[in-house]
Amino acid sequence: MDLNVWKTNEYWKTVSVVVVLVFAVLATLTYALRIYAVRISSGKFKVEDYLMGIGLLLSYGATVATILNAFHGVGVPSKELPPAEARSLNFGSWIIQKFWPTSMAFIKISIIFFLRSLFGARPIVRRCLDVLSVIIALWATAALLTNTFQCWPPSYYYNKNQTGHCMPGQKQFFMAMGSLALIEDTVILLIPMPTVWTLKVRLRQKIAVTLILSLGSLVCIFSLLRITEFRSFVLTDLSSSSALESIFTCLEMNFAAICGCLPLLRPIFRKFLPSTNGSRSYGQGSSNQPNFQSGFLSASSRNGATQFQKLSELNSATAVASKVKGSSSERNETKTSSEIELKGIEMWTSVRQDVRPASVPDSNE
């Protein structure tokens, strides 16, 4: 191996290991914080929490394969590598293709369950999310099976020293699967936006929630970069052409996990940052004033439990608050406060009643 080839190998080895490992750790820490947020709020894990955990575990498979490829000559032309290392690197590329669709499917469906709990009260949103879940499951199954049996026998993909063949249009298939994944990411990103912008809240609050949900655009960026890399993908020289593609694949999964967990970290900020505590009032007499607190989608806690409410519960809660405000009773001064929460929207209603006691007749009279 000459000096230039060695430098190329060292460069891609360092980039692959550092970048992939750093963001895998960040994704793991973000998920750990999500678990902690659930523990200090409701203490009850939901389906989306388990799905996100499974997706993160599957992403580790692609991360490990990418790191191993870094030590088997990634970035170096196959002809410059010993046959054993070339086969190991091709096998790593084959393994990454198995973990990518399964990991992304679990992470995306986890995010869909979360969005369904927020905006599922609207039938059209709920139906769109349900249909999208089915499409993602079918896409992941098709991608997994085709990636596995694109060559026959399957081992022919990474070991050409045997009799076998591969299907035509492999590169086009990879680009098609990546394009479908990008479309799914975009739809997930756009579905909640109309609902957010129809809420009767302040403009800055709508912008804040939109920015939180728009973090998913980072996933779309890495998905697009991954598709672009397939244009220069050389199936007969995976060692030199798969370096960036493998990195973008891992980053796509890691950022999907990170963006899916960030909106659920609100309880941690409420616990350790008093400035984000939603218990502050807007003053007496102020009613029906929603607030997206600190830009995080959350609901205030009742008895230590943080729970999300559906959109349909907002109207009934508002009606109850209005009835309380309009009623009168012969009591001393009272003050009640009700919190109406909707995924980061909190509404306080204060009712102040002053009732003067009836005059007491004189004892002589």
Automatic annotation (TrEMBL):
The lineage of its organism: Eukaryota, Fungi, Dikarya, Ascomycota, Pezizomycotina. It is found in: Membrane. Its main location: membrane. This is Rhodopsin domain-containing protein. The keyword Transmembrane helix applies. It is a multi-pass membrane protein. Keywords: Membrane, Transmembrane, Transmembrane helix. Belongs to the SAT4 family. The keyword Transmembrane applies. The chain crosses the membrane at residues 15-38, 50-71, 99-119, 131-152, 172-195, 207-226, 246-265. One of its GO terms (cellular component) is membrane. Residues 33-271 form the Rhodopsin domain.
